[in-house]
Design a protein that fits this description.
Layout (H helix, E strand, L loop, with lengths): L3 H5 L19 H14 L4 H8 L1 H13 L6 E4 L2 H10 L3 E5 L6 H13 L2 E5 L9 H7 L4 E7 L11 H8 L4 E5 L16 E5 L11 E5 L1 H6 L36 H17 L1 H21 L17 E3 L4 H10 L5 E3 L2 E4 L7 H16 L1
Parallel strand pairs: 2-3, 2-4, 4-5, 5-6
Antiparallel strand pairs: 1-7, 6-7, 8-10, 9-10
Helix pairs in contact: 2-10, 4-10, 5-6, 7-8, 11-13, 12-13
């Protein structure tokens, strides 16, 4: 079993990368394993092809292990959005969500409402833009059947209180969570949720196409498998017949999974499990604390909550001139995201002191004017 030190050492690359909330450069282990699987798929041997195909269940099992779920409750998806759409399109009634969420959630809700008329978006407008238990409790009505929320807000890094949200909506409504900005680096209470959707191309370092979704028993009882394809049919593909959707979460799939994407996800989540999610969160918190300290020392406002329990790996800086800070970072070879009036800084466990030093220099330059 690897340690957090082993996990940290798996972050090679040049200094300056602070954009893990946008894209996670693939880990060396992921790259090595996928090359090996590519070679096996190139042989044409049935045994080699079957061996790589086993990566599908390996990936599902790895995700299930982190979630504390059963493997037959986990599906592989092309992206987070696919999982959210499976969940939202199968609902009937009011679904609470903030229009300020990453477009995955508001777009899925709007499309479902337009297509079928069974889903009624209930738009939240919470103070500060954060989806809090208090804001949700105030917005609930008799028609509300679910709340859709991001574990970590992509703009500010605000970390949702899943247990508090569960208490606010009660036991009979569904809690649908977009976990892409926190899965694998935040030791969340997944038992509070009913659906968890994510992707491995950010913090997991697994590349695009590595989406997944967990559907609890309660979710499966309430969500019709509207988008179920032949890959989600009972008994699998059946020529000359259309079987009913599977009784398991497999019903919320469309076709066969990409085995190479499954391989990348399996390796990436395996690395996380070996190091320990709680240990990874603690190490990431230390890096985030350093970013916050740098910004505060130079008088740069922060839009991210300062309470450790309400933040994850994203720190949103709100300088007087976003363009000036963005230019200073770019001049030093620092990669970050400038959006919506903030500079989003997203370190990871392997972010080195040299990278944080470059951030410090850029912030100092802006402070000097």
């Amino acid at each position: 079993m690897s340690t957090i030190a082993d996990f940290r050492s798996s972050f090679p690359g040049e200094p300056g990368y602070l954009n893990w909330a946008s894209f996670g450069p693939l880990s060396p282990q992921v790259r090595d394993e996928v090359v090996a699987d590519l070679e096996m798929l190139g042989t044409g041997r049935a045994s080699s092809i079957a061996h790589v195909h086993e990566r599908i269940d390996e990936a599902r099992g790895a995700v299930a292990g982190v979630l504390g779920a059963a493997i037959d409750e986990v599906t592989l998806q092309p992206s987070t959005t696919y999982g959210v759409m499976h969940a939202v399109y199968g609902l009937s009634g009011g679904v609470l969500a903030s229009p300020a969420e990453f477009p995955t959630i508001p777009t899925a809700l709007t499309r479902a409402a337009d297509a079928f008329g069974r889903v009624r978006p209930q738009w939240l407008a919470p103070e500060g833009g954060w989806v809090t238990p208090e804001a949700v409790a105030e917005a609930l009505d008799a028609d509300t059947v679910a709340l859709a929320v991001s574990l970590v807000d992509f703009r500010t890094g605000y970390r949702a209180d899943l247990a508090g949200l569960r208490e606010a909506i009660g036991p009979d409504r569904l809690l649908i969570v977009d976990a892409v900005q926190g899965f694998g680096v935040i030791d969340a209470d997944w038992s509070a949720a009913d659906v968890v959707c994510g992707n491995g191309y950010k913090w997991l370092r697994a590349g695009r196409g590595t989406g997944f979704a967990w559907f609890s028993a309660r979710a499966r009882a309430s969500i019709a498998p509207v988008l179920s394809g032949f890959g989600g049919a009972e008994g699998g593909m059946t020529p000359d017949a259309v079987p009913p959707p599977a009784a398991t979460a497999q019903a919320y799939t469309i076709s066969g999974a990409d085995v190479l994407a499954a391989a990348r996800l399996a390796v990436a989540v395996g690395q996380v499990a070996d190091a320990g999610v709680a240990e990874i969160e603690a190490a990431l918190t230390e890096r985030v604390d350093r970013v916050i300290e740098i910004a505060q020392r130079h008088g740069i406002p922060i839009d991210t909550p300062l309470e450790p329990e309400r933040r994850a790996g994203i720190v949103a800086l709100a300088p007087a001139s976003v363009a000036a800070l963005g230019a200073e970072l770019a001049n030093r070879g620092v990669t970050a995201t400038t959006r919506s009036g903030t500079v989003r800084i997203a370190p990871h466990v392997g972010t080195d002191d040299e990278t944080l030093g470059l951030l410090d220099e850029a912030c100092a330059a802006v402070a000097r004017g």
